[in-house]
Design a protein that fits this description.
This protein is mostly helical. It contains 2 helices and no strands. The protein is elongated, with a radius of gyration of 28 Å.
Length: 88
């Protein structure tokens, strides 16, 4: 849990530093800065969406893998002597 908080804190500091440098470089050309910022935010959202879809698929596959196997013909054990097949 501490590692996740540390990672979140460092990510916020990194994004703040990137934003400050980004502002200093492009503060004269506001139109370009807004357009580039929109493209960067769009790319970040696409990456997050792909990651979320991948996580959902992984969870579904993991749930399916953990589900016990239930074969339709072997789901009930034969109780009667007539159900048991004899070898010739």
């Amino acid at each position: 849990m501490i590692d996740k908080l540390k990672q979140l804190f460092l990510s916020i500091i990194g994004i703040g530093a990137f934003g400050f440098v980004f502002y200093l470089v492009f503060k004269e050309d506001k139109r370009f800065m807004i357009g580039l910022l929109a493209v960067v935010v769009g790319l970040i959202l696409i990456v997050l969406l792909i990651g979320l879809i991948g996580r959902i698929r992984d969870n579904a596959q993991e749930k399916k893998r953990k589900k016990p196997f239930n074969h339709p013909t072997l789901s009930t054990l034969p109780n009667k002597k007539n159900d048991v097949q004899k070898k010739p």
